[in-house]
Structure formats: structure tokens, C-alpha cells
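Structure request: 5'-nucleotidase C-terminal domain-containing protein, Roseibium aggregatum.
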Amino acid sequence: MNGRVAITAVLFLTTALSTAAHADYSLTILHLNDLHSRLEPISKYNSTCDAKSEEEGKCFGGIARIWTALDERRSALQSEGKNVLTLDAGDQFQGSLFYTTYKGNAAVGFMNEMGFDAMAVGNHEFDDGPSGLANFIGKAEFPVISGNIDVNGEPDLKGKVPGVLVLEKGGEKIGIISALAEDTVDTSSPGEGVRFIKAEDYLKGAVEGLQAAGVNKIVALTHMGLPRDKEIAAAVPGIDIIVGGHSHTLLSNSQDGAEGPYPVIVKNPDGVDVPIVQAYAYGKFLGEIDVTWDDDGNVIKAEGEPILLDASIEPDEDFLERIAELAAPIEELKTKVIGSTTSAIDGDRNSCRAGACQMGTLVADAMLDRVKDQGVQIAIQNGGGLRASIDAGEVTAGEVLTVLPFQNTLSTFELKGADVVAALENGVSQVEDGAGRFPQVAGMKYAFDVSKPAGERVSDVMVMEGEAFVPIDPAKSYMAVSNDYMRRGGDGYEVFKTNASNVYDFGPDLADVVIEYLTAKDGYTPYTDDRITVK
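Returned structure:
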């Protein structure tokens, strides 16, 4: 599809509305993104918080605490006569044993009770294929939208994913448009029947269609990541605010570690400021942004701050009871101690998508250890496949499954040295965007320089031969181990799919491999070394 894309699916949730405002109009948007199935509270490492830490006030988030904060803020705002919009920017799926056990069914039940106005499709909503998303949508009592995906070729989703939503708040029409990261074909499993359209092309047409219908207050609810949201804001006129997700970015005017102000401001093609907000991930924050338009539909104010969901917020008792009921069938698995670690194992995405991290070292070492007797020399694991950290002390099977929730299997294959280097180039090609393809490795070393163009960043690739590292030979074949998702081309590792030989994709579950490795190395000491050098 070329040029500007016409609106093909519009969901109107409005009746007879006034066609013009008569004074400034304000709307408060409460928003979440990237909860990733963290229905239970999380620790400072984003892993599941234990009962003792909860009692000590050291935990954050959890769906019961999110509900308390959301309900209290929405009720307070509405009691003041304010207009409120409640949005989720996607990726409810994947990341804990609740998803492994219940898929999207647990999440949608809670979301229905919480009264969301809309949710964007996130890339991980496709982790169980189109049918997994279709099941979620079928149970959702709120619109699940995404505009730049064409699902007409997918029977499970055809006619079920609107691209535009128009609803009424305080006598005004609010248009909500949505877009999903185009590389979802690499990061999840949307299947052959789902086609992706460049977000800017779709959104330009969607905005024009809304404006032609008399809607002059337009919210883009995206799952693109902050770098892409900035590009969209700069390229698409008519968007009033972008509420995003995907990059797990903390925007704040007060929190330590924030990656930018809340909101970030980007000028659109007409020179108009466009505010962009995102509220980190895992339910640690609830975003709250207040937007004011003048009578002509121009944004004249956008201010707010994400709310830290810490121990000062009391979790809802009914939700706690339901979480306990859902947790019961998996509690035995979660609590089984499989080993210990002398200190916390860092699996934070900011570490594992930018350089060698402790969790990447552990997982790559475990993979290589499992198959080294098969002649395998190197291991490559995508940093995006590592979903949590592990606290110091006893390690449970549940903690490992939270780190590695995707049920990937080990895949072994043979690859030329030149293709190994090409794979590493793919892995570091989007470091500046925090992409999950970053390669954690074992049995090899490499360096990369992010100041160089993508495709020319990798150097000094060495492979362990016997007891020493030697330069990789581009013409030589090497036995490698990865996970089956990457081997089939996931996260842009197309070279694994097209050039690998002697492939076996059906090894043991990656989480089981790490569990066995930690059991054998009880008292494991986390570390990183010089296997990855950032120039």
C-alpha cells in the first residue's frame, strides 16, 4: 500500500455530540504500558517480590496496587468534574508464570474490571500467534486497537482489530489512533496472514480521516518505542499527544534515572509542539498527563508526572485474593529452590541490550555448557529474551522461568564464520534504540563501535579454540547454539534461518537448561568479563 493510508477500520463509541467547543477543554489521561504479566508486585530488579519484602515495604506495582491507584485517581478527577481517559499502550502478555500458565486470560479479566477505555496491540500480544490475540480480544470488554496492521488475511483476527476509535468525553469527540512496531514480524509471531504498514503512512491517513469527520482532538496510542514516537511526532501533522510503550522508557520530572522529561516535546511538520509520554514498565508507575485544548482544537498545555506505585499505595484486597487463587496452582513450581547465588544477577534490559550483562553471561554459559560435548563452540542469546533479574540468595525455578518465560528450546546448527559476524552485526545494529536483538555470547569475544554505521560496527571477533581465543575464520564452519526463536529468524537473525546447516531446533527448554546449570553450580557468583567490548 503506497502513500497515505485510508482508515479501513473505525470504531465509533459516540452518540449525538456537539460539533464545537465553547471554551478550553481539558482531558486527563491515565496510562500504563508494558505490564508484561507482572500481576504480582515487583522488586527493584523488576522480578517478583517476595512476601517478606512486601511486608518491609520494598515492593512496587502489582495489579492490586495498580487498581487502587487507578481507581482512586480516576474517581478523584471525576469528582472534580474532570474528563478522564484510561489507556494501555500494549504488552500485557509475556513475562511471568501467570502468562505461562494462563496466557492472556488472567490479564483480560483484571483489565475488564478496571474499566480501560482502550488498549493498543503490543508486539508480545502475538507471542502465541494470531489465535492468542484473538482469544484476548474476544474476552476484552474494551477496544483493542492497532491501525498499521492489516489482518484481513488472518481469519482469527479479520474484522476484530479496529485502527481508530472515536469516543466521547465531556461532550467532546476524542479520536484515538494506534500503531504497532513494524518489526513485530521479527520480535514475535504474528504469522503469515498479518501485514504491517509503515506507521507514518497509516497515521497520516487516519488523522486526515478524523479531521474530515470533525474530530480535532487526536491521541496516538502507540507501541513503537520512544525513538519511533519522536519520528512519528515529527512526521505526522495533526497528532495532539502520543501515549506510547515498547521501549520501557521512564519519563519523569522528578524520578532518578529518568531518560527524559514528562512529557517529551517534539515539533511536528507545522512547527507545533507534540507531547509524548510513556510510563516505564512492569506496573511500577501509573502515567498521568493533563492536556488542554483551546476552542480551535490546539493543545495549549500538557503537564503531569507518572505516579510511583510503591508501598504507600495499599493493594486492593479483592484483587489480592484473586491473585492468590490464580497463584495457587503454580506456587509449588515457583517456590522450588534449585540453587543459590552469592549476589543479585542483573538482568535489567538497560544492561542486557547494551553490553555484556550478568544474566546474559549466565544464560549463554549455560547454553554452551549443555551442548559443548556435541562439538558446539559458540552460544548467542538475544538480550531481549532475558525478562528479569534474580535476587541474591536462594534461587527458585519460578525466578528462572520469570527470566526466561518464552518456552524457547535450544537450537544447534552450523554456520560459517562470516555469517557469525553478520549475526553479531544484526545484534548490535539497533543498540541505540535498546532493541532486544543485542547478542549475549559465550565461547567467543567481540567488540563493537556504536558510532559507526549499522553493519560496520563489529570487530575483533574471537572464538575459543582449545584453551585460547583465536580470530574467527570467515570461511570456516562453526557449531553454534542459540534458541529456536532466533534460529528461525527472530529479532532480525535472518542469517540463522537462511544460512544455517545441520539444524536441530528441538532441544531442551532454555529455562530448564539454566535451572540445571544453577543447580550444578549451587552458590553461583554472577559476573561479566571481557567477552563484549564497547569501543
